[in-house]
Amino acid sequence: MKSNSSNKELKNITKESITTALFILMQQKPYHEISITDICKRAGVSRNAFYRNYSIKDEIIRLYLFEITDEWRRRLRQNHSITYYSLFLYLFRHLEQNKSLAQLLLKSGLDYLMIDVFFKSFRDLAEDKSGKPMYYLAFLSGAVYTVFVHWIANDQSAKPEQIAEILCRFAHLPPNEVIQLPDMSSVHHLMYELDFSYRKD
Question: 83 pairs with which residues across the strands?
Fold first, then answer.
């Protein structure tokens, strides 16, 4: 009988294979033409294995985006004197590292998946401590997302440091003010439990 650690490792390998297969297929044909069968064949897994991990195709990308965003959220909490400037700086350095993925998602018409990650992540950063109204958080996350899309879609030369300064100025946030972040939420909480989204299903 397999141990829990072996089962978890196998599950992670399966999910990684499925995710890689989807991204390869997205470079070859339009997203809407990619079927679950196509993904399973490319990944070398059964349809049962697919549905044990995901319910629909979009969920593969949503989970991957939340997981890589998790890296940014963890890094923020390693800095005990995080400011608004450094929050945006770390974010855009992280986004710069994932630029090719973002360009692929935009090309595939999947911007709604990216913006949902922005909305949920900004809501989580302010949860239980800011008292800011939801419209403000929606405005801020939408504004940051729009700047990001303009930055990558038009191959702008601005550095993350410049973007961080611009966002602080536009959002009227004091760049050097130290902010207190709440405890980190899990990826599952952001994806399925947090009631703050770009659009309702």
Answer: 178
| Residue among 167, 164, 161 at smallest CA distance from 140 | 167
Contact 94, 71 (CB under 8 A): yes
pLDDT digits (tens, 9 = 90+) for 84-122: 999 999 999 999 999 999 999 999 999 989 988 888 888
In this prediction, residue 42 has a pLDDT band, given cuts at 50, 70 and 90, of very high
What's the pLDDT band for 131 if we cut at 50, 70, 90? Answer: low
What is the reported pTM? 0.86
CB 60 within 8 A of CB 19: yes
Summarize the chain as % helix, strand, coil (round to 5): 70, 0, 30
Tell me if 185 sits within 8 A of 194, measured CB to CB: yes
Give the chain's mean pLDDT.
87
Residue 24 amino acid letter: I
The residues near 10 (Cβ < 8 Å, ≥ 6 apart) are 2
User: What φ, ψ does residue 111 adopt, rounded to 5°?
Assistant: -60, -30
Among 66, 62, 91, CA closest to 181:
91
Q: Please, what is the Cα angle at 26 between 24 and 30, to 5 degrees? A: 150
- Tokens of residue 111, six digits: 């911007």
